[in-house]
Amino acid sequence: MYQIGGILKTVREQKGVQLIDVQTQTGIDLSQLSRIENGKRLPTPEQLKELSSLYGIDSTTMQIQRQSDKIITTLENLEYGLESLAVAREKILHGNDYVSMFCDTHFTKPIALSSRRYIGSKAKLLDWIFDTIDANTDRINTFCDIFAGTGVVANVALSRYRHVIMNDLLYSNNIIYKAFFSPGEWDKEKVAAYIERYNALDPNKLRENYFSKNFGGKFFEASEAKRIGYIRQDIENHKKELTEKEYNVLLATLIYNIDKIANTLGHFEAYIRKPIEHKPLCLKIIDAKEFQNVEIFREDSNKLARRIHCDVVYIDPPYNSRQYSRFYHVYETLVKWNKPKLSGVAMKPPQENMSEYCSSRAGQAMRDLVNSIDARYIVVSYNNTYKSKSSSSENKIQFDELIGILNEVGETRIFEHGHRAFNAGKTEFTDHKEFLFVTRKHE
Ligand SMILES: C[S@@+](CC[C@H](N)C(=O)[O-])C[C@H]1O[C@@H](n2cnc3c(N)ncnc32)[C@H](O)[C@@H]1O
After folding, report:
1. Residue 135 alpha carbon to ligand 1 centre in Å
2. What's the pLDDT tens digit per position in 99-134?
3. Model-level pTM greater than 0.70?
4. Which residues line ligand 1 (CB under 6 A)?
5. Does some domain include residue 49?
6. Per the structure, how many domains does the chain have?
7. DSSP 8-state class, residue 295
């Protein structure tokens, strides 16, 4: 039964036209017309054009009606008819990108913690760091990663030690740690359903929002920025229906996926000033786990140091004047979602979480930290960028100064590793080296 027949009949009767007159004016046979109106036969596109013109109705609207009738009759199983139609819609929307989008969501591994672009990430140095720690420490039960950044160091520690403390000033990092590590109830299928709904969004049907108005056409392609803002707001709107872990997994999933389409060199101090290539956002869930042996903080390192005890504290602070809260301000804004007024070319929020370690007080802060923390071993990561041409990349604590600070509290051994530096484009690091200081604190 084709529904277009009923529509044509209603219009004809409203116009007060007899079927015989329709035959005369269109040349369509009377019995065919009657079968069409009874829904037993589909008019051909040409016949429909004639009829639309005769009745003075929009031809495209009627062709769409005809096509939808045709689609419905091809559905083999009405039980999943609606879902099939929704998928067909996505296929039309995404064209050739659809196959890879589908495979990415359904058949590939969830996104790994270490896959994020983050300045100073130690993802490539983990074996060396832990081999050095193993060879130079003993009886480690509690490990503290007090400037945890991406969390990749703490992640390895979680599989080795009885208790792991991780901390970072940034809101976005804190959400990411909770999403990847914290224990808590969550339903993976429920989160996957949210993600599928977000992947099916048509950005053309979305309104401009806080995120797209501020970051569209800069850090993200305009229509994808609309999608990101919509998704962020939707997560907030559903907060009451989500457990804390589900909420954190959705937010961290959003951050990890937009990192892959951001128009940047890996941080948000600046965006690339070229037309932005349109890469559709296709969310893939993060590899969230639950650990019982983790404690997560978002505090200033020096304040936290006064309250905790650990066997090893791993210290990997910022090395130069470039603040992480400014590098990753877009994620901070996205996570906090209090929609502040943003300013400057990079659309930054008002300053928050500015680190002492990026200032001329870095040496004092480090001295205070190593003195106040109750730890048997202090392990410090350090890289020498101080010969850099750019002053913002100069180390705030010089190599010898750091040795002096550590020697005040214990015996220090220094280990060196060859490593290529982060390079934002202009700065050249010629003799960049990565060091690990291991200090056994005096009793
Ligand atoms: C060099 S990164 C750490 C990188 C990390 N080890 C990794 O592998 O990803 C330094 C981190 O320290 C954080 N930070 C800076 N000052 C801080 C402070 N006073 N207290 C806590 N975290 C701080 C920054 O947000 C940044 O994530």
Report:
1. 25
2. 877 777 667 789 999 999 999 999 999 999 999 999
3. yes
4. 118, 120-122, 147-150, 152-153, 167-170, 173, 300-301, 316-318, 324, 355-357
5. yes
6. 2
7. E
